[in-house]
Specification:
CATH topology: Arc Repressor Mutant, subunit A
Radius of gyration: 11 Å
CATH architecture: Orthogonal Bundle
Shape: globular
Strand content: under 5%
Structural class: mainly alpha
Largest sheet: none
CATH superfamily: Winged helix-like DNA-binding domain superfamily/Winged helix DNA-binding domain
Oligomer: single chain
Number of domains: 1
Length: 73
């Protein structure tokens, strides 16, 4: 069974990926999370590598397919 999209990601990567899936640009993500555009790019590149994705569309599709709900803590 494949792991959920959020399992291999850090908490910040999860936030970035969820915003990508919602259609936010890197600049918008940076504004929302109060981080630089470069930091967004870094988190996104790391998430791409961990998820084996090559595009924002692949990430969005996976999040939508598997659900973006948060896990109970």
């Amino acid at each position: 069974m494949e792991t959920a999209w959020r399992d291999p990601l850090s908490p910040r990567e999860r936030e970035v990926v969820a915003l990508v899936a919602a259609g936010a640009s890197n600049r918008t993500i940076g504004y929302i999370l109060a981080i630089s555009d470069k930091a967004v790019e870094k988190h996104l590149a790391s998430a791409f590598a961990k998820l084996g994705a090559v595009s924002r569309t692949q990430i969005a599709s996976r999040v939508i397919t598997e659900g973006a709900g948060r896990r109970a803590r």
